[in-house]
Amino acid sequence: MDQFTLNLLFVGASFALYIGIAVWARAGSTSEFYAAGRGVHPVTNGMATAADWMSAASFISMAGLIAFTGYDNSSFLMGWTGGYVLLALLLAPYLRKFGKFTVSEFIGDRFYSPTARLVAVICLLVASITYVIGQMQGVGIAFGRFLEIDAFWGLLLGSCVVFAYAVFGGMKGVTYTQVAQYCVLILAYTIPAVFISLQLTGTPIPALGLFSETLNADGTSSGVYLLTKLDQIVTDLGFSSYTEAHKDNLNMVLFTLSLMIGTAGLPHVIMRFFTVPRVSDARWSAGWTLVFIALLYLTAPAVGAMARLNISEMMWPNGVNGEAVSVETIETDARYDWMATWQKTGLLDWEDKNGDGKIQYYNDKSDAMAEKAAANGWEGNELTRFNRDILVLANPEIANLPGWVIGLVAAGGLAAALSTAAGLLLAISSAVSHDLLKGQLTPNMSEKSELLAARISMAAAIVVAVILGLNPPGFAAQTVALAFGLAAASIFPALMMGIFSKRVNNVGAVSGMLAGLIFTLVYIFLHKGWFFIPGTNSFVDSADGSLLGIQSTAIGAVGAVINFAVAYAVSMNTKETPQEIKDLVESVRVPAGAGAALDH
Amino acid sequence: MADQSTHTQADGAAGYWTANIRIITISLIIWALVSFGFGILLRPLLAGIGIGGTDLGFWFAQQGSILVFLALIFFYAWRMNKLDKEFGVEE
What is the mean pLDDT of residues A570-581? Predict the structure, then answer.
């Protein structure tokens, strides 16, 4: 059986499974549609939340980013897991006790202001839609690559599948579908990693393999640690060392903090904690979610380091001081077939610039390498393009693993992108139908028409995402950073102050959210261009060229601080919160009496 | 009688909240110490402690902090469920 058929088989079988589950668990009532009847076990909920959370960014892109920069990108690992500590300690149990369906409902009730609820809805919509565009783009590329069809058709096909189970299933369908998706994606991520770790270090656990000694060709230990060897090879090729820090502390701390706060402020993640039966389950559920996320996040740095080592050694089969790999080997040797496959996608390319029949891969921007290059007659790096996002998908091919592993990785990458897209669509639809229509515009809406509105807004969101995904604005990574920055600067502080302070009032919360949101948005636009139109930026987006010496991806943490400060200052100088709101805060703080879910 | 019982309940709620804030504060200090501390700012101080071809700070940044985060969340869930019972505010 050829690779194409195998890919098709794995992707097809996994999809049949998801759709089957969605049909089986069809939602009947609004309560089931949004929150699965609050009957989901913490472990099940944790697994579904993990699938929801780990998107194409975690599965496809993160290990590649770590592979090519090393230590500096540890921010992703700490940021996207550390946010769960904030969520578990500061938000989840209290929001579950509050007992409504959506994040903006809490903000509207706690700050006794329809304006606050409206501002929250706007923040949620902007963050979720920008995020879902990135996911749909990922779906299109992955479908295109593995089914060997044009990315346009991949995108259309993917959007139909997302539509099918998100629209007809609601949260209940999504919860069980996402449990299945988690199983597929974690197997797809760890199985190749285990194989590669065994090949390189003889350790079956990749997370431990990262800190182990490498093996010689005959299977005996070489006595050299994997990371030492990797540091040596990459510095010999003129790249910066893998394990040392090259980024300034301020930007690294703020970037990590932005990702953490953003994680705890993203609506589709918070919504998950409304679906557990009890307050104590909300606490456990956050822990279980992180267990399931950690399985991938502990493996990711190993995947990155091992792939970097494998690629470097493939390009320099005789060591960095020997001869580089020849063009003939790349074209004829089966071990190099993956290079030709990926060349077709335009994401990988090479060129024999000096015409010596060999492909020299090194850092041609390094001064130290210029001398060596001149002495050897090299005319620049000849591995001209290596897109970091292909690393995880190409990894099993690079390590020469069996065809079924490659098919599994295809199914896993799609599961990661689709599950997050579905969760985001649900957050969007509830914001529109529940908060905007029922909460503000047409309060007398029947349950049936609310459900219909939820489905229509999901369909509309998919159409918007497909249209924008068809003509990628070319800033997918920045869009994700924007989504995180906005959630960090607007939603998280409002939620936290709503629980931990009785003094913060309606005016304070609204001014705080607006200040955090506008500051962050303007700062990003100043560095990335207004509405991301190229050339309209006033500052260069680097640590040196930026307005405050802070990169735009890290500014969300500053926006959050501004939100807190403004909200407190304004609240102190305006009317005190009414007694019934103080009572509401008191009741949210203790778990007793959470049993009955309040329906409005 | 009714007044007295309300009073005791209010005291209990305040005590419960103070105890909760204390546990949260301690947990968040550890949270910041392992990530921003050991993983980033204090890394040079730990450079002397080697682990598998690199130093302890690198391990905290890529794996150690995640393991501590896990321990913190489960500790908090366990400790709070105990606290709920001590103050009689469990579900």
Answer: 93
Stretch B60-81: mean pLDDT, rounded? 95
From A85, A207, A210, residue closest to B73, measured CB to CB: A85
Q: In this prediction, what percent of chain A has a pLDDT beyond 90?
A: 29
Q: Are A211 and A242 in contact (CB under 8 A)?
A: no
Mutation to test the B interface, candidates A38, A74, A227, A250, most B Cβ within 10 Å: A74
Of all residues in chain B, the one with the smallest CA distance to A294 is: B66
Rounded distance between C-alpha atoms, residue A49 and residue A326, angstroms: 47
Token pair in block for residue A41: 């076990």
Domain residue ranges in chain B:
24-86
A498-505: average pLDDT: 94
Which is more confident, B3 or A462? Answer: A462
ipTM of predicted assembly, 2 dp: 0.90
Q: CA A25, CA A17: separation in Å to the nearest integer?
A: 12
Q: What local confidence, expressed as pLDDT, does residue A29 receive?
A: 55
**pLDDT interval class at A474 (50, 70, 90):** very low
The residue of chain B with its CA nearest to that of A593 is B91
Q: Do B31 and A74 touch (CB under 8 A)?
A: no
User: In this structure, what is the dihedral angle of CA atoms A319, A325, A326, A331, given to the nearest 10 degrees?
Assistant: 150
Q: Do A287 and B74 touch (CB under 8 A)?
A: yes
Report the distance separating Cα A187 and Cα A202, nearest Å: 20
Q: What's the pLDDT tens digit per position in A193-230?
A: 999 999 999 999 999 999 999 888 787 888 899 999 99
Q: Which of A3, A127, A131, A167 is nearest to A56 (CA)?
A: A131
CATH architecture of the region A3-309+398-471: Up-down Bundle (1.20)
pLDDT band, residue A253 (cuts 50/70/90)? very high
Q: How many interchain CB pairs under 8 A, A with B?
A: 136
Cβ under 8 Å to A: B residues 14-73: 16-17, 20, 24, 27-28, 31, 35-36, 39-41, 43, 51-55, 58-59, 61-63, 65-67, 69-70, 72-73
The DSSP-derived string for A447-491 is HHHHHHHHHHHHHHHHHHHHHHHHS--S-HHHHHHHHHHHIIIII
Asked if A212 lies within 8 A of B81 by C-beta distance, the reply is no
Secondary structure (H, E, C), B46-86: HCCCEECCEEHHHHHHHHHHHHHHHHHHHHHHHHHHHHHHH
In a mutational test of the B interface, the residue from A58, A76, A221, A590 whose CB has the highest number of chain B CBs within 10 Å is A590
**Mean predicted confidence (pLDDT) in A132-158:** 74
Out of B13, B54, B65, whose CB is closest to A78?
B65
Question: In chain A, where does the domain assigned CATH 1.20.1730.10 lie?
Answer: 3-309+398-471
